[in-house]
């Protein structure tokens, strides 16, 4: 396993110069798990790729994750790409929040306990555009128990069953992630 790399910068551009350089090189090959640090914000980007071989099938994944500071369990949301089974579920009465953004609503399933707050989170057309264009992903707030404690830690997490190694595509997702993160922590 590769050691945890921390990439620091004052701006997203500074951070992304290093990420782009890293992804263009051969050093990362199967794992790329840097923490991107800008100011007090720390975001884990974890790309994992195993091509398999022989009788093994292999796998890919991308995770972008950040601890939510000051966020409690009074708000939750999750979105994912609308697939065939979701279409059947909608037909059978599955609940899906309609945000009022037609293209977004047609391409993703939205679950939340606060419809208005979700509409605010996705008011930015660039953010919506990123998630409209993706398949095989989930994005939302997750909770995790802190070991040896009854307390929970809340995180914003994006995950995909694909190894997203194109620096331009990864940056678009990262930027949309950070926009939502900033709104949640405001």
Describe this structure in words.
With 186 residues, this protein is an alpha+beta fold. It has one domain. Helices cover 33% and strands 30% of the residues. The chain is built from 6 helices and 9 strands. The chain has helices at residues 12-24, 84-91, 102-107, 115-121, 125-132, 167-185, and strands at 6-8, 31-32, 35-38, 41-50, 59-67, 77-81, 108-112, 137-145, 152-160. Strands 1, 2, 3, 4, 5, 6, 7, 8 and 9 form a 9-stranded mixed β-sheet that branches. Helix 1 packs antiparallel against helix 6 and helix 5 (125-132) crosses helix 6. It is globular. The N and C termini lie far apart (35 Å).
Please describe the structure with a list of short key phrases separated by commas or semicolons.
186 residues; alpha+beta; nine-stranded mixed beta sheet; 6 helices; 9 strands; 30% strand; globular
